[in-house]
Each structure stands twice: as C-alpha cells, then as structure tokens.
Specification:
The chain is α+β, with helices and mostly antiparallel strands. The protein contains 5 helices and 5 strands.
Length: 188
C-alpha cells in the first residue's frame, strides 16, 4: 500500500505520476528480489552423498538417461517407519547418459536396464526448517529447496529452482517427493 501511494504522488508536486502498471512492475521487482534470496544457493553440494542409502534406479527412455537416487540416513529411516521426512533431509539424484550402441540406441544389460554412461548432473533436494517461506503459495514446496550440480560439485548456472518447484508441486501429498513410496519400501 505504501509503495502504491509513493508511486502515485501528485503531479502538481512536480513528480511523475505512475500508472497501476508501474505499481505492478514495482511489486514484481520487489517479489523478484525476495525470490533472489530463496532458492538453490541455500543448498550445498552433499559431498558424502554416495555413502547415503541408495534406494531407487530409474531408466528414463524419453531422454536416454539413468537416474540413481540416494537418501540421507535419517530420511531413509523416517520414510521406512512412515514418519515425515525431517529437517536436514537430503535426497540426491545422479543422472547418467545411457551408453549407446553403433546405431545410437541405448545399450541394455542382461536385465533390460540401460547401461550407465557418463555422469552428467547431480540434482539435490534438501529440506530445512523455515526454508521455502520466501516463495508465493502457488509454487512453494513446503520447506524444500532444489539445486543442480555438475559431476565435479560445481553449481549449475544460472541457478534456477522454479522448474523443480513447478514439477514437484503436484506431489504435495507425498511431501513433494516423487519417489517417497520407493524410499519407504527400500531395504534397511
């Protein structure tokens, strides 16, 4: 409200009058600035994730990748006993390109699964108390943040978690985690 009053100062005072569109643009800039402090910058590369519990491997035929998923020990235990995933949960997904044959088709092993090729990216979901409050309700994923890293642990740039937020939003009944049932069923 104060911003709108500031933007609509009287012309008689010699100041430029701003339209409602100007006020909306200014409000959008304020929102964008708030979102700039939210997001993937909060998530650190989980350097020890390979010692976390592996719980799912998925072939993705639409882009010829293999995804291997790991959960921090506390998350794996909470899911197994059907408790909410705690603050501090880290879910990590390695994405590999499938190896290809001479015709460019993905190679498959004896069980019909894609054979892993090069590791191309590492995606991380991390849950912390209070995270996500900066996001508007229509894209907020509880207390989750998302980040994407190169295999060497450097953050992908530009860092943008909006695609992750949009995709995971539909999984709100599963704490925004697509693979929660598989995590709950994973052996100890």
């Amino acid at each position: 409200m104060r911003l709108a009053r500031f933007l609509e100062r009287d012309r008689a005072g010699g100041e430029r009058r701003c339209s409602r569109a100007g006020a909306l643009v200014a409000t959008g800039l304020v929102l964008a600035a708030a979102l700039a402090v939210a997001g993937p910058e909060k998530v650190s590369f989980p350097s020890g994730y390979s010692s976390h519990r592996p719980y799912l491997t998925v072939d993705r035929p639409f882009n010829d990748t293999v995804r291997a998923m790991y959960a921090s020990p506390e998350a794996a235990e909470s899911a197994r006993v059907r408790r909410p995933l705690p603050s501090g949960t880290v879910l990590t997904m390695e994405v590999y390109k499938a190896k290809r044959d001479d015709q460019g088709k993905p190679l498959k092993d004896a069980s019909g699964r894609f054979v892993r090729g090069d590791l191309v990216t590492i995606m991380v979901m991390e849950k912390r108390a209070g995270w996500g409050a900066e996001y508007p309700a229509e894209i907020r994923n509880g207390e989750w943040e998302y980040a994407q890293f190169a295999p060497d642990g450097t953050r992908h740039q530009p860092a943008d978690s909006k695609p992750c937020l949009s995709c995971h939003l539909r999984m709100s009944r599963q704490d925004f985690v697509f693979s929660l049932p598989q995590l709950a069923a994973a052996p100890k």
